[in-house]
Write a structure and sequence with these properties.
Strand content: 15-25%
Shape: globular
Structural class: alpha/beta
CATH class of the largest domain: Alpha Beta
Number of domains: 2
Largest sheet: 7 strands, mixed
Number of helices: 13
Oligomer: single chain
Radius of gyration: 20 Å
Helix content: 25-40%
């Protein structure tokens, strides 16, 4: 659902995602590591590279495929890069299902849908030399793109959904999300929320800390009772929000214009406000977040160019250029040592701070098989979240 910097908000209407099979243990299927065990289509993995084709068609977030590195790639390989910018994860899924594209820069709320639909293929990591020890551990083997021991994604970058605030108004740094969720918040009427069904997970993160009797251990694994509790909290928050955002530019405008003084944000959006009074914090409850990766189409007509693009953009300099251009933590930690500017960027976005990202639950498509390891209940799926979200704003 993530709309990147210049992307406009888009609707969220999708078919239900229902997968058969069983989840592994809670430890194995934790959102922070381990992958997932479920039945998915048996799509073959590329075994060896061949000659480059003449082009590669890529669906990407704005800022991920730019002439500065795409032209150099074409000169080096002969693979012309054709880019299609997408504004939401829904749009990416729909476009990838046409079979007209070779690669997509998917977030975790799209990747499981594509894997379950047989729309993307497992990735042969042996064919991507730049996927090595320098790729941060927190972006390897994740539940949203590692299925049945197979990797489907090549990491690009990641970020947390943090609490941003206007320090001229919010004079004491918040330590909890309670100022954004509770009706007695002193900032009621000046709070901004995220406009997408995946925001249900933000409510679940808050409930994990404040209503432990609900038994939520993973914000993307909600049974019907837990989903109902999250929706009740979202409806409660609806009474105190000034607006919701899906278009990042609109979020920045809301803060700069004073409509909002506190709410969900990304580090890059706080940076874009270009005013030191706007600050941010990762509250004590933790947060949701996003992690982007290249996924290759199961119908790719240019698999050799696609594999080479994944390898090329995993190199420190190129991966770092993408991360700096968009505003996120790079996947390749070696970039952080290439210059003082790179180090400053990595420090700002907590690129190599795994303790920081252990507090972040990266977007993962909700499915009926509980990704927290429970087998005695059925969890709610993506369509149920979509339907429930429509009831929040009335």
């Amino acid at each position: 659902m993530k709309g990147k910097i210049s992307a406009a908000a888009a609707g969220f209407a999708v078919a239900a995602l229902a997968l058969s099979g069983c989840a592994g243990t809670a430890e194995d299927t934790d959102a922070h590591a381990g992958g997932l065990s479920i039945d998915v289509p048996d799509v073959p993995m590329m075994e060896e590279k061949g000659e480059f084709e003449d082009h590669v068609d890529i669906i990407a977030w704005s800022g991920f495929v730019e002439p500065a590195w795409a032209d150099a790639f074409t000169e080096e390989t002969g693979c012309k890069v054709n880019r299609r910018v997408a504004g939401t994860s829904d749009e990416m899924v729909q476009l990838m299902r046409t079979g007209d594209y070779d690669l997509v820069s998917a977030s975790g709320d799209a990747s499981l849908r594509l894997i379950a639909g047989g729309d993307v293929a497992p990735v042969n990591l042996d064919l991507i030399p730049n996927f090595g020890d320098d790729i941060v551990e927190g972006m390897k083997g994740q539940v949203y793109d590692t299925i049945n021991g197979k990797s489907y994604g090549i990491p690009i970058g990641r970020g947390a959904n943090i609490l941003q605030y206007n320090s001229d108004v919010v004079t004491e740094e918040p330590t909890s999300w309670d100022v954004a969720w509770e009706t007695d918040s002193p900032y009621a009427g000046k709070i901004i929320g995220y406009d997408a069904p995946i925001y249900i997970a933000d409510a679940a993160v808050y409930l994990m800390a404040h209503e432990p009797d609900l038994g939520i251990t993973n914000p993307y694994a909600l049974d019907e009772e837990q989903l109902a509790a999250a929706i009740d909290l979202l409806k409660q928050q609806n009474e105190i929000v000034s607006e919701y955002w899906a278009d990042p530019a609109a979020q920045v405008t809301s803060f700069v214009g004073g409509t909002t003084v506190l709410g969900t944000s990304w580090e890059v959006l706080r940076k874009l406000t270009e005013d030191e009074k706007f600050k941010s914090v990762l509250p004590e409850e933790g947060s949701t977040g996003w992690s982007d990766a290249w996924l290759i189409s199961s119908q790719s007509e240019s698999p050799n160019c696609a594999y080479e693009w994944m390898n090329y953009t995993s190199a420190p300099e190129v991966n770092g250029a993408i991360a700096m251009n968009f505003g996120m933590a790079p996947a390749n930690a070696a970039f952080c040592e290439t210059s003082d500017e790179a180090k400053a960027h990595c420090d700002y976005f907590n690129a190599t701070d795994e303790e920081y990202f252990k507090k972040v639950w990266f977007w993962t498509t909700p499915i009926e098989q509980c990704v927290d390891g429970r087998t005695d209940v059925t969890c709610t799926n993506f369509q149920q979240w979509t339907d429930a979200w429509l009831t929040v704003k009335g």
